[in-house]
Design a protein that fits this description.
30% helix, globular, alpha/beta, 4-stranded mixed β-sheet
Length: 405
């Protein structure tokens, strides 16, 4: 199954000289997941996640934010595209014919196409069961730290063992950018830092002001998440199938659902989790896929496999079904060794575990990610669930549609 019929020409395009402040306005539309940056030639993509997870000045140009993502062709396999979206952390990828950009493909487009076939997988197999949550009284500043430390985009807000709402990193994009410019003072031209005119004629006559405004920024970060979260929260049971989850997300205009049992929140399932279900390997042999193999100069592939195999004996006989390891090199170095981010997705018969670790060199980063995984496996409550590895009938139902034309 290819992506030819889900390529769309409907996308937002900006030039490399567009400012971050204008991009914030673009992302005010919740349906926009990313924008194409193009001048005479295609430059790349800027995603909502990029903007929300880093500090940016409003007058910064998009040229400095451009993300070089994989370029697709219309005949690409849909499972491969799903994997590329996960690897690049971009839910929008460009599609080319030769050197010409003919459109884009989105995560929503993929999920809408495969939705009827997702009844073969349950939410329990795909959702992130390591629940990271906030209380309604938690501040925006605290929430931003949790987002960045855990490299996640959705936070359930829990009160009295019940889901009160969800805070999305995308919901606070405009706030985080504005908080960066509070200390800049007013603009001498009588406009705010985002290029909008000040409505008060008195303010215009003063033509703005200079001087620090850290107090305003501090108060913004002190806002409780109850004032920002989406409520009421949409929930789903772990025994529901993924097609039901995807339908619920589209109907609600949401990108995540809180997974509950007996009214208590136990995890969260996102559109990315549903995308990943398309990449699960069919068959009896577990694969350990490593992306960024050029960075494993101080550790071998066999050592990474050995590390994964040790997880089989943890948590009372848990079975690892497949593993994906993503390595990314940062610019920072120590004594010539680059800072490396290791992100590990461990798909088991007890659910999905995701962990990240940073260190100087791939081995150090992998060890940090391993330690996080070990804590997650040790701390996770199974809640009485017992799942057996998928049998042949399961995989035939899961991937039989790929043979249909």
């Amino acid at each position: 199954m290819d992506i030819a019929d889900i390529v769309t020409e409907e996308y937002v395009e900006h030039s490399p000289e567009t400012t971050v402040s204008k991009l914030v306005g673009t992302f005010a539309d919740s349906d926009v997941r990313g924008v194409v940056v193009q001048d005479e030639e295609f430059e790349g993509i800027v995603t909502r996640r990029q903007l929300a997870t880093s500090h940016r000045q409003p007058n910064e140009k998009l040229r400095s934010l451009v993300w070089h993502v994989p370029r697709l062709t219309p005949d690409e396999d849909i499972r491969k595209v799903a994997q590329l979206m996960i690897d690049s952390e971009s839910q929008l990828l460009p599609v080319f014919e030769g050197r010409e950009l003919i459109g884009v493909v989105t995560a929503d487009g993929i999920l809408q196409k495969v939705e009827p076939y997702l009844d073969a997988a349950a939410v329990a197999e795909a959702y992130s069961g390591e629940l990271v949550s906030l209380e309604p009284s938690s501040t925006l500043g605290n929430a931003l730290n949790v987002f960045r430390q855990n490299r996640i985009t959705h936070l359930p807000v829990v009160e009295n063992d019940s889901a009160a709402g969800v805070l999305s990193l995308y919901d606070v994009t405009e706030i985080t950018v504005r908080s960066e410019v509070q200390s800049q003072g007013g603009d001498a031209g009588g406009v705010d830092p985002f290029g909008g005119e000040i409505s008060s004629s008195t303010a215009r006559s003063r033509r703005g002001g200079y001087g620090a405004r850290e107090g305003e920024s501090t108060r913004m970060l002190d806002v409780p998440v109850r004032d920002l979260m989406t409520s009421p929260v949409r929930t789903i049971r772990p025994d529901e199938t993924l097609d039901v989850a995807v339908t619920e997300m589209f109907d609600a205009g949401a990108s995540s659902l809180v997974v509950t049992e007996n009214g208590s929140p136990h995890g969260i399932v996102t559109k990315t989790d549903c995308l990943e279900s398309l990449t699960w390997e069919a068959g009896g042999n577990r694969g350990v896929q490593v992306y960024g193999t050029d960075l494993i100069d101080d550790v071998t592939y066999d050592e990474i496999v050995a590390m994964v195999e040790k997880f089989d004996d943890r948590d009372q006989g848990m079975n690892v079904l497949d593993t994906k390891v993503h390595l990314h090199e940062h610019d920072e170095k120590r004594r010539g060794t680059p800072l490396v981010l290791a992100r590990v997705r461990l798909h088991t018969d007890r659910g999905l575990y995701v962990a990240s670790g940073e260190g100087y060199g791939a081995k150090h980063a992998m060890n940090e990610a391993r330690d996080v995984l070990e804590r997650q496996i040790r701390d996770r409550k199974t809640h009485g669930r017992t799942k057996k590895p998928p049998d042949e009938t399961f995989w035939e139902k899961r991937f039989g549609w790929l043979l249909e034309e």
